[in-house]
Amino acid sequence: GQQVMQIPQYQHVQEGEDFTTYCNSSTTLSNIQWYKQRPGGHPVFLIQLVKSGEVKKQKRLTFQFGEAKKNSSLHITATQTTDVGTYFCAGRSSGTYKYIFGTGTRLKVLA
Amino acid sequence: SAVISQKPSRDICQRGTSLTIQCQVDSQVTMMFWYRQQPGQSLTLIATANQGSEATYESGFVIDKFPISRPNLTFSTLTVSNMSPEDSSIYLCSVENWDRAYNEQFFGPGTRLTVL
Nearest to residue B30, comparing CAs of B105, B111, B108, B109? Predict the structure, then answer.
C-alpha cells in the first residue's frame, strides 16, 4: 500500500536557525497537505499543494511540491519557540478520497 | 471552518470492556474520518463514515472491533470493543471542509484512551 515517509524524525534547533522537513511518497500524489500538531493538541491544517513544482509561502514557512508529485518539503526560516510541534504531510492519490499521513517530524526549538 | 467536539476527552478502561466515542460537528458534512494516533506516532486512518451507509474500514481494522455509527450529517460514534492494552491510543475524528478551493481536514480534540 501507499506509504509516506518523512525525514528527519526529530530535529532540535536553536531559535533563529532554519528548519526543513522532507516528505516522500511511494506513489504519485494528486495533492499534498501539511499539518502542524502542537504537543498535546490535534493536527491543524497549514496548506495544500496541488500542482507539480508548486511553491507556496506563509510568512516564514515555504512549502514545495516536487516535479514528480511524489515528494514535498516544508522549510521554516528563523525558527521561533512557537514553531515547536510535529509537522505532518498527508498525501492523497488520484481516485481516492483519503489522505495517508506521513511519519511526522518533531521539531524542538531551543531558546 | 468546522468546530468538532469529542466525548469523552479521556478515559481509563479495563481490558475486555468497550468504549463509545462521540464526535459532534457544528455543520453538516458528508464524510467523517476516524483516526488512531499512538503516543509519538503518526495518524492511522481507521475508517470513513458516510451518513446512510456502512463505514469503510482500512486494512487492519474490522467492524466487529471498531463499530461505527453515522446517524446524521453532524454526528458519529466509534466504539472500541473488547479492549486490550494495545488499544491504548488517542482517537481522533475529522471532517473535510469543501467550502474553499481546498479540502482541509478539521480535527476534533481527540479522546485519550488508556486500557489497563
Answer: B105
